[in-house]
Specification:
It is built from three helices and three strands, in the order H-E-E-E-H-H. By secondary structure, the chain is an alpha+beta fold.
Amino acid sequence: MKDILIYSKDKDKHTIHLRTVLQTLREHQLHSKYRKHEFWLEEVVFLGHVVSTEGSKVNSKKVKAITECPRLTNVIGIKNFSRLVRYY
């Protein structure tokens, strides 16, 4: 298991969601190192986005990387950059 993000709009729902996920992991005998977990964060960067109590938005560092990209000189670089720009 790589990364799990549990998002809820309020703390009561979050407690229920968190309990459900942890119980499901336990039922399937899946274990993780709890010292690697972070709980009750107000904001987290996840898969290139910033998820917070205000919702999800694009990570501004990714946008900055796109706007400050040096001039590309080969076809492969241009294709890869084009895919990245379309995504963001």
